[in-house]
Batch of 2 targets.
Target 1
Amino acid sequence: MISLLAAIAIAVLTIGGALFSLIAAIGLNRLPDLYTRMHAASKAGTVGSGLLLLAVGLHAADVATFGRALAGIIFFVLTAPISAHLLARAAHKVGYKLSSASVRDDMMS
Amino acid sequence: MTPELIVEYASVAAIVILVIALLMTVYRVVVGPTLPDRVIALDMLVGIVIGFIAVIALRTGYTLYIDIAIALGLVGFLATVAFARFILARGCVGEGERVEAGRGPSKPAKTKTAKNVKASKPAGSLGKEGK
């Protein structure tokens, strides 16, 4: 038994999170090279799953559940940049090239 | 229109959108020209599956699914870190020649451009690096 306002907020969060995941998937398919794909997948994907977890926490209307959902969101927000950074650094160090459309490479030594 | 019905419709729509996103990401896993592309797509796949688990928890009201989502996020993070270490240790084995077509040989010392090495046989080309 949830109120109408809470139901609308949960619906907006759910559909917004799913749309962010869809945007990340579109970016993963449309962008030209490895590093720009990483930019799409890492940021929009994290926001998508974070919004969906926040919707679950609001729907339960329970402090313990909301706290766990918030802990999950904080964990994803903290770990997604680390993994993307590690992967991009490894790929750049090993020698995977940027797209031919890119204008400069600050890490090129 | 009751509040429960709004949440029901929203969760069904979210599942449909997430299925489309999942299929597009699986397409990138299959066709992705290099190994880091596939690793990024796998990382993204973990994020989408976390979203699926959240929607299922929303529909069933069984909030223990959130713990499963957190555990899956931990496993996905560790898998991506391990793959990054593996890419660092393996080196560039000549895959993704199409991407660097517009640039000259800017780093000739680091990349061993073995053009005949197939990307579909990583086991055979792995021994050549020997790191």
Note: Chain A touches chain B through 67 residues (CB under 8 Å).
Target 2
Amino acid sequence: MKLNQPKAGSLTELKELQRLMAATLFRPLNSDWGMQRKWTNGASMSEVAASFIKPNDRLTSFERLEIYNRQYWYRVIDCLYDDYPGLRAVLGEHRFLKLCRAYLERHPSQSYTLRNLGSRLEDFLRKEPAWSIPRQAEALDMARFEWAQIVAFDGPSRPPVTVDDLLDESPATLRLGIQPYITLLSVDYAVDRYLIAVRKREGNVLRGEASNAMEQVPRALKTRSRLRPPRPERVFLAIHRFDNQLYYKRLEPTAYRLLSGVQNGLTLEDACQTALGLDSTNTSAAQIQTWFRDWAELGWFCRPSTKIKS
Amino acid sequence: MPANSFNGETDYGIGIGLRVPHYQHILAQKPTVDWFEIISENFMVDGGRPLEILDQILEQYRVVQHGVAMYFGSADKLDREHLRRIKRLVKRTKTPWLSDHLCWGSVDGRYTHDLLPMPYTFASAKHTAEKIRAARDILEVPICVENVSSYAEYHVSEMTEWEFLTEVVELADCGILLDVNNIYVSSQNHHFDPIEYIDNVPHHRVGQIHIAGHSKFEKYILDTHDHPVLDPVWKLYERAVRQVGRTATLLEWDDSIPSFDEVHEEALKANKFLHRLEAQPA
């Protein structure tokens, strides 16, 4: 097959050249962690590479392009590897790698920062259960939980509302916001305790910062023994930060419903009524006061982002 | 030429990259360091610990921003949201200049998160220079562009890498962050003379120099930033400072990061060459 040699003599041609190169990098590696031998149209990848990359006396065009193809995949997989240790433990290293490959092939990064690489993982796991069955439910809970930690780590905050700020406000009309870095989660598995066990086993891992190059083998290839899957348990969580340290706090079901009501824009009175209406534990007024005081001390409340008319 | 318009007329000495494993040591021990370089994108966040750390560092130290994702060479237009966030950070750090790479890394809004080599053509030089000018107009701070290490070359290239770098910086009227380790890595991968590179870039535009370690494989060299600086790179550094003069110098160490003291000690080896320079008659 005769291939046209891409040019870069104009902006349009530059873009075409960059599209071609990016397409070769985004293409998943083969089972030996090398570049695939055939291009998408069945052409020899050696010919495709030779059409725009020069060889030298030591490396063919294919081999030179393969360095970049590998680096791309090692980099993005390492990023997910660091950001999703719990999901990796739920699925096992091998299935996690397959999931990463499928996810990143469908959703290449659309952000200048790798921080956002997993932003569509929950949606992908929902739409394509094949990558996580028979542990789709556990995987989904864990992916949501781990993404919430990324948000809590460096998400935006607004000036907190203190208990004193609320003294003269009527619960019938008062609406509050929840800090945007906080995620309230209802999960069916004890993902919080599971992740603690995972971290204890692995130690905390920091993502590499700015190297142009990656290790020769992604860390995900290094196998280790598996933990038992997370225990089924309905858990309500607030993933938050305090003094810029990351925390996840278990909530009573009523507390979770109350905070969710506040987050959804209900007045304080309506949020309490809704939460207590479903309460089977006879939560006392004193208990609710204690919760609010604790949450306010943690800086969880802020003014709502948009004014909601009553 | 220690200070020039491309580094904000500053006379910074030898700095190191600010990296997470060193945070605790720096904040607790407050070591004497001329300046820190930060990866801009790591601090272009909305809140939380990264900004808290940065603010504490800024209370004690001079900080210069180094970006990895502006992608001046990408055919895509500049990302306005990205620039807005950089500018917000510029106001916070008061960086006297900022740098990013002479490369591309995204196309059609999809990111490779790599520093990919440019095709060295006049058309791509013109486009790249226009983007640098536009970014500088928005950010209102001098910009230095860094030569990247590369493992591939394009058939379509019309000039050498140093001719392309010169073409871009002259058209953009911007500075150069001369990475002597990258010059060495690319010279080995592409068989060119690194001295010819250093001798032929416009020296008056060099606002900063990078030094780093690399890894040698059987058929190529990778820019891994996980070793001390190797002798051939120090030789190039010496050559560069002889031509350019005493210039803000920064050691990059991004993987297998040793203790703060070890990294700082490695960076300070650059003093040997700077002192030699000062000892020479004018």
Note: The beta strands of chain A are 177-178, 183-189, 232-242, 245-250, 301-302.
